[in-house]
Input
Amino acid sequence: MANTSATLERLIDQFARLPGVGKKTAYRLAYHVMQAPADNARALVDAIIAVKEKIQFCSCCFNVTDDDPCPICKASDRDHSLICVVEEPHDVIAFERAGSFRGIYHVLGGVFSPLDGIGPDELKIADLVARVKNDGVTEIIVATNPTPEGETTALYLAKVLKPLGVTVSRIARGLPMGGDVEYADANTVIRALEGRTEF
Output
């Protein structure tokens, strides 16, 4: 781009590579970094480098962690007989933010996607089966996203895990709190009706 610093343009290009960041947001972020105190910029760089150098996957649940096993798997005050199965590490964050789940997790590392060559062998399903067989697990809560791939993965997990003598349940889906029924799509309304509970 003419009349612009090549150094600043390079930073803009790097920000624009981030998911969900368009060119406009990349400009704003780059200008913010440029105008921020040097200590703030160094702290950002240090945090990015630390993520690349220190983060690893828990050998038990495959969540991201600084230490192996992760703090959730090590916690003695959690119910280790109850495992919530999620697609990715960021799903664990969503459950932990809600603060009501006291079991432990298992991160699959994705969902079935035949077009991308992702099947059971590419996910952490064998590790989940081993945990169920060896760790006294009594219930698996499948919390994959309500997409065709997530539903297919959930059905496969139920088929593989039920014969092992554990309860396999699926998270409820339906209308969000504060949402209006009139704006909901047909599938959401159907799921809300199917997942109803008694008062």
The chain has two domains: 6-54, 71-170. The two ends are 62 Å apart (CA to CA). The chain is about 45% helix and 10% strand. The helical segments are 6-16, 23-35, 38-54, 71-74, 89-98, 125-134, 148-161, 186-194.
